[in-house]
């Protein structure tokens, strides 16, 4: 039985190659995910992780180019089909977080995209087109998919796809736009007990910014968010802090809403500055993440493929949650980013040690087999002109 219903005999044969390749390589796939989990590397420092995944692609016949877009831990691996045709890009992420390691499960993502590319690559030799595995660093900080997009790495790509481990299986969902900001206050030091009136307290100003912004958010839509942390709050309790630094991750339903949150932050910072006398400064930190616009055609091919390989019924959840740097790509060409349930424990949340542990559980590994088959079959749908994809291009 072909996994895709809109399939001629060439496509049906390719479907079988994909399904069998993923089954055959399942152990290697699970070891890869576990290896990344055991060796987490922070954003921009993913030297071993990127080499491991690119090395696997090379072992299965891909030509690998490292350092694309001037990023040392970015790569592009290409395997060409019989004749020129559509280019399908599988996107691998592999950066971890401080403290919680692979608390976002990018070990699962990097592995899944790599083996989806390998499985589709085993089939592509009889098909038109090209399979690319693109290694995209620093999703948690700089969002280097955006850097790579601007550098032309995705030029000519017909569709880009990847999956994220999650608490639910959901195929087409949006994400929040995100603007990262560094905020600083400059005051004046003084003895905090003997002569505080001679100082200007930069920490008081920072605390006011947090309080002001927290209150301002009450009057904004629920998709507007502004989590922040203080990196520098002063050195000694008996010295008035003269310089404080915080970072904020400003979110909104779309770029306009995230910019509204930024305007509120600036107003709150200026108000804190007037109240305390500390000088306020801010700057944007890294790329702006746009909201994800999932492609309906790719989503319908994935849904069909996922159900055909025994995947569970996906949920539909309309409220966007996190932010994704694939969002910017989705404004330029068709993109797919389903989430796949990897745990049955709903008390676990992302960006935690527990989620990292869940990413290598037997259930997460089982789900990965089906998910990788479905993702590679979706890539096959693009290469072979599945009507759901072609209709979208119409
Ligand atoms: Zn994350
Ligand atoms: Zn993530």
The CATH architecture term of the largest domain is: 3-Layer(aba) Sandwich
Which regions have little confidence, pLDDT < 50, spanning 5+ residues? none
Ligand roster: zinc ion
Oligomer: single chain
Mean pLDDT: 96
CATH superfamily of the largest domain: Zn peptidases
Number of helices: 12
In whole angstroms, the N-to-C terminal distance is 29 Å
Largest sheet: 6 strands, mixed
* Pattern of helices and strands: HHHEEEHEHEEEHEEHEHHEEHHH
Q: Cα-atom Rg, whole angstroms?
A: 23 Å
Strand content: 15-25%
Task: Tell me about this structure.
- The chain has 394 residues and is an alpha/beta fold.
- It has two domains: 9-175 and 290-393, Zn peptidases (Aminopeptidase); 177-284, Alpha-Beta Plaits (2-Layer Sandwich), CATH 3.30.70.
- Helix content is 40%, strand content 18%.
- It has helices at residues 9-24, 26-38, 47-59, 106-124, 144-150, 202-216, 255-276, 296-308, 326-330, 353-358, 362-383, 387-393; strands at 63-66, 75-80, 83-92, 128-135, 159-161, 164-166, 177-186, 228-232, 243-252, 279-284, 335-336, 339-341.
- The strands form three sheets. The protein has a six-stranded mixed β-sheet. Strands 8-9-7-10 form a four-stranded antiparallel β-sheet. Strands 6-12 form a two-stranded parallel ribbon.
- Helix 4 links the parallel strand 3 and strand 4 (128-135).
- Helix 3 packs parallel to helix 4 (106-124).
- It is elongated and about 85 Å long.
- The relative contact order is 0.18.
- The model has no long low-confidence stretch (mean pLDDT 96).
- One zinc ion binds at residues 104, 140, 351.
